[in-house]
Amino acid sequence: MIQYKLLTKGMFEKRKTFEERSNSMALEGWRAVSMASESSLVSVLMEKSR
After folding, report:
1. Comparing 11 with 45, which gets the higher pLDDT?
2. Nearest in space to 12 (alpha carbons), one of 36, 40, 33
3. How far is 47 from 50, CA to CA, in rounded Å?
4. Are 37 and 45 spatial neighbours (Cβ–Cβ below 8 Å)?
5. What is the pLDDT of residue 39?
6. What number of H helices and E strands is found in the chain?
């Protein structure tokens, strides 16, 4: 079974904080599948196999 999470950078969140959050998820076994950005909003689709 594959789990999915949508990781979104907040409008007022610093880029470094968002990178740290995504890197900590990667250490937990999550993998970035897709990325999209519009204006200052960034979203990353993460997946993880159970």
Report:
1. 45
2. 40
3. 10
4. no
5. 83
6. 1, 3
Return d(Cα 12, Cα 47) in angstroms, integer.
25
For the chain, how many structural domains are there in total?
1
Structure tokens at 15: 């880029």
Compute the radius of gyration of the chain from its Cα atoms: 11
For residue 35, give its domain range: 2-49
Q: Which two tokens stand for residue 2?
A: 């594959």
Amino acid at 27: L
| Residues 1-42: tens digit of each pLDDT | 999 999 999 889 999 999 999 999 999 999 999 999 988 789
